Batch of 4 targets.
Target 1
Amino acid sequence: MADERLPRDPLQREAAVRAARPEAPARTFIHLRVHSAYSLLEGALQLGAIVGHAVKDEAPAIAVTDTNNLFGALEFAQKAVKDGVQPIIGCQVDLAFSGEASDGQRDRRRHGPEMSPVVLIAASEAGYANLVRLISKVYLETPPGEPVHLTSAMLEGRSDGLICLTGGPRGPIGSALKADRRDLAEQRLLFLKGLFGDRLYVELERVAGYDRMVEKSTVDLAYTHDLPLVATNEAFFSKREDYEAHDALIAIAEGSVVAADNRRRLSPDNFLRSQAEMARLFSDLPEAIDNTVEIAMRCSY
């Protein structure tokens, strides 16, 4: 028999049921994948706004992981320290696995190896030095006509002091699983584990429309190989209401128009979510939230 205390209207009923659910326990969450305006024609966050979010949300630390550069690292670190926030320095960079390219695996923008993003975070002074060297190499050694990217060969011997996040659904593991290539995903994961050891974290991201089957396979792989999970929410803008303006920026970056269908689109969820929202979002995998704090603690150098 239906509970007579609940509203008859279905929408009101659903809202009442949600309101009655217990809140997820409070957990500290650290943003580890944030794009500032230095992610050129991609990020829309000023460094001060990133630090300001951490202060307002009472987060003890926050990362900046711009795409293919460390332009904002010094300014970000200075602003964060001034406001009592631990700065975490990292970089998102596309990674191509040496020897994997085939005629059927070509980037849509040009001929070349398949590549997908990973996040490298400096956990020590040696790690920061390696990160600087790697970013320099991607500009000096990427073949003409190809977008700058790391190769797996470049990483060998230069991974000390670096923490690696696997890039989430768009990363080398998630993209292989989405293509129904578990064997390839596992091969890539084991290669990264060989390089980074316990400094490799399998990244999960839950924005609107995320593929639950890919996530399940990702979690299964992580557990199979005894690797920790970490939750991220790749942020390009400050709040959900900024999505449309940011979408126009993405269209301009691609030389397209907002109305075009065949262009890159992000999600309205790609903003700086609060700790409470992230804790609720990953209430079924609290370890993924807790590991953001573990990573921040490992970066206290």
Target 2
Amino acid sequence: MNLLGIFSQIEKADPEIGEKMDYSRRKMLKTTSVAAAATPMFFAAMVNKAFAAEGCAGDAIAIVKYALTLEYLERDFYRAGQFKAGLLPAGTRPYVVQIAKHEAQHVDLLEGVLGIKPNAMQPKYNMATLNAALADYPTFLTYAQALEDTGVRAYKGQAACLLEEDTATSRTVLAVALRIHSVEARHAAAVRYMRDLRVWPSGGQNGTEPDPKVYMDEDQGTQGGANLVDFFNMQENKMKLYSPDMSTRSVYESFDEALTAEQVLAIAGPFFAAPM
């Protein structure tokens, strides 16, 4: 089996896959004999792992940098809102100030994981987009909701990547990410409360602004292979407490769906001065 020839052909078709496959090869060789590594089965498994990495921001350190970029954006967005004169009503200002503090602490934690100085990776922003998001209070909250819900789904999207890597570093990063993820969900609920909406992503209340991709594929009735909407609507189901519309909404609200790194960067990209 001419593996080198096959690698060459694959790299011609997709230059990026060479890097992905090299990472998968190095990882699998840690637990695979040299003889086994020469077999077609090994090659197929390596290709599968390389393509499974689609949606990941990279290895554990790359994922931390990806998360840090998003946390910088959230921190600076809330700070900009906090210090824009006349933007925030007195009644909700404490919420925004507290969320800004949380986001700053998330930045500090992720910078600590990377061992870098404060703001060492501070991105430059597209000020036109940022200023548009601060145009008025309703617009500010619309963008805040989008950023928070994107953040929740972004962290979930990388959890599987960290589990797949399964190194001491990835396990440490996963623990850090989970500590942040739950707080981002609370932020999202707080922003929805400020908007007089249901406090979890809910069909019909998510909206399409500023970007419909924030809620792409969010409303899923099937979880773990089970169609929960059908279950709750079964005539035989003695727990049938809601109308079909209410039970469907309840199922949708009960679960968050992941976003890939590519999807997240497509949503957040307009905030940055240079392509992410």
Target 3
Amino acid sequence: MHESGGPGWRITMDTSGPMLIALYLRDVAGLDGAGRPSLSHAAPKVRHADHSHLTSDVGGIQALKTEWEAWWESLVKAYPKPASELAPPSFKAFGNSPALQRVLQAHFGSALGWATDRIDEYADLEAAREANGVTQVLNEMVEDRLLEVGRSSRDFELTIIELPLSEPRAWYLEPSTMIMSHRLLSEPDVFRSYVQPVVELLA
């Protein structure tokens, strides 16, 4: 996790294991456009598999989409804490989401392996960022804002959740969370174009 801060303000950047698993399951089930915000596909690409046989007697793909969206919403709200216990093989916490429970049972091993690889890659990315000082842009954005308005910062915390997404962009979730592609910070101008307006709103 990276943390930038000053008097009254704090910005954190990190990834999320449970959200990585959820992303994998979304893509493997072909739930394009599911969830709010509607994020781009995961990268590297997850191969879609047909789940109609798994879910046909528990509401089908529509039920799976609804259950996944409820889970995703709970993950975003609970972050950085996990929302539901991912406990194989039965995944009891998902007893009220039978379609999602079945997909978890079918794909948890591969989802966990994929998520673990992404977490390892993120750790390498973080180490490289710390070495080259690229995260300093966060402090610069806040300092620029405070110089512009001529006062000290309002108290605020901004949580940035970085995920391996194919599209280099970010999504703002009121009041103080952003989800973004983990590659966005490598494009400082694009990164600023998404984060600066949020900093101006909060600082």
Target 4
Amino acid sequence: MKSNYSIQNLKNIINNSAKDEMLSSDLIITKRGQKRDAISFIGEAEFQSIQVFSFDDDIVEVLRQTSKSDGSTKIAIDISLIDRKSLAELFSIVARMAMVYSYEIRIIYTLAEYSPPSGEAHPNNDVKPVSNFFSGWSNRPGMPILSVVGLGYERDKAVGAVEFLESSEAFLYIPQSKEDKYYTDVIRENSRLMGAYPESNRFSYELESPTETIYSLDSVISANKNKYKIVLLPFGPKIFYALSLLSSIAHPEVSVWYVSGENEDSDSSQDRDVSDISGFSFTINYSEK
């Protein structure tokens, strides 16, 4: 299946441009905190003249009221403190509204300061697609499963999800940042899963360069979607979760799955001190084919 969505103009947003990208937007969607949301990190006084909405507002109505009938509406979405299921709902709303309007989306993500893993293990009580919109489908039922797994601090949750799906194959995405200790911790927390797959199935990705990651995801999906039913399991940093949602919009055969308890990982939605800010932008349009 070919998506009716056109996702183009992918660009990285680096530290010193994040504020400008937000201030030049028509509106901002966020979840406010004390430290980790982008507005608090940059300084609230900078945003007095721009419309700011909470992720739990009526976003459909907000977009109806603010979207331009001529030209693209620029929306900054600060994903830093938004929980994963709500973020999936937000992406699905944007995708549906893009059937009528054109959008330029700026995804903003604040990276929390390094914190070691808790060492705790949480059971996978619920493993399923994050929503109907991201449930994927296949023209050929019975195809083997390929899991594309983002790794994080969630000890054994990733391997449990891969086993639950009875995956025939898996590709592993390992986050890297300026904090070398984080990379080492992720490797250790996921040693069981990593030991099950060769190095050729492992990809390291830079948190500060998300566009390279989505091009990598696109290549993996395009090369394998005619052979496998592809399931994205985006554990770890939320920027990878956002990239997975966008990949599923571009490839509607692909599903994005949610695992209960994944918010216990130390990156999830905790309002902690920030070490860096980055993100990516893209345009999204829809056309009948």
